[in-house]
Write a structure and sequence with these properties.
The chain is an alpha+beta fold and 156 residues long. It is built from three helices and five strands; from the N terminus they run αββαβαββ. The protein is globular and about 45 Å long.
């Protein structure tokens, strides 16, 4: 799918995916901000129904597969934040993804974990989902989350 004029809302429906409610901020920030033709999301945790279903570090208590799925959930939550601010269908393309992975000492699989977000965005947006990216290992994340993802989207 390469047509950026299409309905991303319809694409999600085709995939059987519903946007969740926007996750409530856990500190003093807003979920997303628009400046010019870009929306920047705050870091999104893998909340499901307001709860963090998985905690811990990669290379210790959390499997790569579980964390990759959590990164996908983070990206879905980021899309919900964009949708609430400007509408999902205003997205022209995903410009950048930044992913943080709570990592035990010696863990180096961060790129594979953040592929959960990147692959999901590609599935939804096709060529418009191809983006620049950073995948960073950190000692701790808020609330013990194993992963956190933020996105930058170009919008109409």
């Amino acid at each position: 799918m390469t047509d950026t004029a299409q309905s991303w809302t319809a694409r999600l429906a085709e995939l059987g995916i519903e946007l969740p409610p926007v996750a409530a901020p856990v500190a003093a920030y807003v979920p997303a901000v628009r400046t010019g033709d870009h929306v920047y999301t705050s870091g999104q945790l893998p909340f499901v129904d307001g709860k963090l279903p998985l905690t811990g570090k990669l290379g210790a208590d959390v499997s790569d597969a579980d964390a990759k799925a959590a990164a996908r959930t983070c990206a879905l939550n980021a899309l919900a934040a964009v949708d609430a601010l400007v509408g999902l269908d205003s997205i022209v393309r995903i410009v950048k993804v930044v992913g943080f992975v709570a990592s035990a000492e010696g863990y180096t699989g961060q790129p594979g974990v953040i592929n959960g977000a990147s692959e999901f965005l590609g599935e939804v947006f096709g060529d418009a989902g191809i983006h620049a990216r950073s995948a960073v290992g950190v000692a701790e994340l808020p609330l013990g989350s194993p992963v956190e993802v933020e996105i930058i989207a170009e919008v109409r």
